[in-house]
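Ticket #4471: structure output looks truncated?

Reporter: J.K.
Steps to reproduce: submitted the chain below (166 residues) through the standard prediction queue, then opened the result file.
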Amino acid sequence: MVVKEGAALLQLFQHAHHRVEGYLMDFCEDLERGRREAEWVVRARADLSQHVFVEEQVLFPLVKERLAAVVAGLQEEHGRILDLTQALHDLLQGDADREILQACTTRLMGALSAHNAAEDLGVYPDLLAALGPAKAQALLLEVETVQPPPGWMCVSRLGTADVAGL
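Returned output as attached by the reporter:
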């Protein structure tokens, strides 16, 4: 039973990775065609924020003691990835040319690819190995329904919010 729930949980997290990457690839393809489709970036940004929230608030606490250094590194990467996503969004709101938008998107996609591989090959399998059937099922139900509250910030950017306002 844990295999079924564990596999479904793993697929849920991996699908979120692929969905965000897909939105960014669609954005790049549209840029190549001369179109600035901000909707792809809006979708990527929303899905990414949701995914990071679930990882930091639900998933990582389950493995933080055993994988403290790994979790801390992933949380810092979350901050950088969300910063790049915000930068791309801001560039779209301005008059950035296609090359600048492509460069920012390429940088973001590279950061996402490396980060996703670390999660897919490291944290997720370790988490699934530690879960029993009941926990896997409960976690699957929780991550499908939990939403970040308005104004939520990832762990690595919590301390920078007050400083940024000065």
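Triage note (M.O.): checked the attachment and the full token line is present. DSSP finds six helices and no strands in the chain.
Status: closed, working as intended.
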